[in-house]
TrEMBL record:
Protein name per its UniProtKB record: Permease IIC component
Protein function: The phosphoenolpyruvate-dependent sugar phosphotransferase system (PTS), a major carbohydrate active -transport system, catalyzes the phosphorylation of incoming sugar substrates concomitant with their translocation across the cell membrane.
Organism: Enterococcus caccae ATCC BAA-1240
UniProt main location, coarse: membrane
One GO cellular component term noted in the UniProt record for this chain: plasma membrane
Topology relative to the membrane: Multi-pass membrane protein
MF-aspect GO terms: protein-N(PI)-phosphohistidine-sugar phosphotransferase activity
Amino acid sequence: MSESKKSSFTNGLNVFVNKFSNNTFVKSIANGMMMTLPITIVGSLTTIIGMIPGLPEIVVKACSLGTSISSNLITIYVIIGISSAMAKEKKGDIISSIILSLASFFVLTPITAFDIGKEKPAMAFELTYLGSKGIFVGMIVALVVTWLFAKMVEKRITFRMPESVPTAIAKTFEAIVPAAIIFIVVILISTAFAETKFGNVHDFIYTNLQTPLESLGGSIWSALFIMFLSELLWFFGIHGSMVVGSVIAVLFTTQAYANMEAVAAGEVATNIINSFFLDAFKGPRALALAVILVWMSRSEKFKSIGKISLVPSIFGITEPMKFGIPMIMNAVIFIPLTLSAAVCVGIAYLATIIGFLPVISVNVPKNLPTFLSGFMAAGWQGLVVQLIQFVVVLLLYLPFMKKLDSQGVAEEAATLENN
């Protein structure tokens, strides 16, 4: 391929990916899901503490409560996060958007009668609809309701208040018309679905959309492809992790929270492929490459890049090497760059199906130091798996980096001779 064709292809790919990653809905999903991290990480920590043997019963109960509140109500947190992110994107009223999104979600969620041994049954929402089973409905509601609300306000489909009315009061009245329209439409949708064989929107979405997507997201092949795609985009200079973040949220998040719910209920987690698993076991690729640069390179350029990159690489930060080597558009290291993440996920998956690595049900921060993240996610087995990944990635990169290093040494020698 000629240089002009390469440049044209790269520019076209950049335009397409930028349009995708900057799409309002895609950005809102990615940013909104990020907002749920604090509560899910805290819930994961309570899960880890609760699994320590020999704890007093009261501590175990407290930890179980923390896990339940973070996992069984995850859809509520997702709605708040995504609605807030969408409102920011549309420059709308964040609080009003969140309230309207939550109200719309509750209208669409069936209220069930529970017999508690009294004269009248108790009426309540089932936790299954507020947990992982309701995530897709929550996402759709937060995105659509917030977008419509902002659009109506933008188009001035509101009460027009006199200029003499204080701004705060005027904004409240301006929200009434769009909120009423959306709320009535949602009530009609809920009423219509109640007459179908599904009974409610949740079961319709779960059957026709969420279950097929969960099946796709539960496949090791889809996980490996996403890992490959993320690094392939990096090869073209595009931040792959940011681009695929919303895709991972859609395909792999519900399985992760279903695992959390199972553990909170005292059951066994069964979804091997999930977003928590992918975050924890994409592998210590940055550290392996930094080690090669520092201790196995002869080129002064690569040694310097390695020294600068070593500490960031412990926390999974690859940018100093991505741009320093550079790895972008560098055909020599195309193979290890694009395959290393997929290979690491494959190693962790194999370790899980043979029974060595437990199914991951806790969310650990993405930038925890290498090896500590594996230990936090899966105990000593997670640490061992990450050590194996480290060695494999090191061996994968080594022959290609040796070739680059030889080129670097030759260039440095030529420069020195010219000087």
